[in-house]
Amino acid sequence: MKHTERDPLPDTPRNIRLDAGLKLRQVAELMDAPISSVGRIERGRVNPTAASLGKFYAACGRADLMRLFWPVVGDRHRADMTMISVRYQKRFGPDSPHGLARAGKG
C-alpha cells in the first residue's frame, strides 16, 4: 500500500494522518520520532504504548483523540502530547481541520 492510499477501515492511524493532509515525515518531525517508528505504528507492526498513540494523534492535530489516552499516561507524557499539539497549531494554524479548536479547547 502506498503512503497516500487509505486503509479500508475508517479510523486507522494512517487514515487519520491522511485526513489531516500530513505526510509521514511531517508527523515524525512533530513527534520528534524516527519516520520508521511512525511507519510501524501505521502499519500495525508494533504494539504502541498509549503515550505513543497519544503523541501520534497530537501530531495529526487530533487533540480529541489524544486526550483519550490522558487517564492512562503520566504527567510527563501528557506534557509531551500537549507540546506536540502546540507545535501542530503553530505550524498549521488554529483553523486547521483537526486541531485544538475542534476539540473545544481553542
What is this entry, summarized?
It contains 6 helices and no strands. It has 106 residues and is mainly alpha-helical. The termini are far apart.
Salient structural properties:
434 Repressor (Amino-terminal Domain), globular, mainly alpha, disordered C terminus, 106 residues
What does this structure look like?
This protein has 106 residues and is mainly α. The chain has a single domain (13-92), classed as 434 Repressor (Amino-terminal Domain) (Orthogonal Bundle). It is 53% helix and 0% strand. The chain contains six helices and no strands. It has helices spanning 13-19, 24-31, 35-43, 50-59, 63-66, 75-92. Helix 2 packs across helix 4 and helix 4 packs parallel to helix 6. The chain is globular.
